[in-house]
Amino acid sequence: MKSIVRSLAVEMALQQRATGRRIAQLRERARMTQEVAADKAGVTLRAYQKWEAGGGIQYANLQKLAEVFRVPVERITGEEDTPDPFATASQLDRIERNQREILRLLHTLTGPPAGGRPLTDEDATLPDAHLEVPEPSRSRRRRAS
Questions:
Q1: Which domains does the chain have, with CATH numbers?
Q2: What is the radius of gyration, based on Cα positions, of the chain?
Q3: pLDDT, mean over the chain
Q4: 112-131 tens-digit pLDDT
Q5: What's the predicted TM-score (pTM) here?
Q6: Four-residue CA torsion sign, 13, 15, 20, 21
Q7: Three-state SS across the chain?
Q8: Cα dihedral sign for 102, 103, 106, 108?
Q9: Distance CA 49, CA 101 (A)
Q10: Confidence class of residue 10 from pLDDT cuts 50, 70 and 90?
């Protein structure tokens, strides 16, 4: 029984440290000092420092921090399902659209690829999609002195 209690206490301490690290990371990403974050959360600097160090934090204070950092409480506690909260589906869709547009613009500027066929949306989504860029002519290259 004693070892189970000790084991639970160690697990809780590790979770609190991890929560403290996430709080610090969120603060740093928001480019805030501890003083500014504490002020925005409406707590003393000492209380805020305790949270980042892995001291216990009440749920009401987690909610305040979530508002300050504009994230769900689950992101702070580590209970969020999304492995990479900064790469949402809509962001990935936007990136893919931008990649297709860039390839179309390159195609317009450089002409068709070596095969001579027009670029399609399927070409733009292939992992190794690329356009051949012609080598600069020798007359334009600078010679090393």
A1: 2-77 (1.10.260.40), 89-133 (no CATH)
A2: 26
A3: 76
A4: 665 666 656 665 555 544 44
A5: 0.52
A6: positive
A7: CHHHHHHHHHHHHHHHHHHHHHHHHHHHHCCCCHHHHHHHHCCCHHHHHHHHCCCCCCHHHHHHHHHHHCCCHHHHHCCCCCCCCCCCHHHHHHHHHHHHHHHHHHHHHHCCCCCCCCCCHHHHHCCCCCCCCCCCCHHHCCCCC
A8: negative
A9: 47
A10: confident
Residue type, 105: L
Half-sphere exposure of 55 (CA within 13 A, CB side): 9
86 is written with which tokens? 């900064």
The single-letter code of the amino acid at 55 is: G
What type of residue is 136? P
Contact 96, 129 (CB under 8 A): no
- Residue 112 tokens read as 């068709």
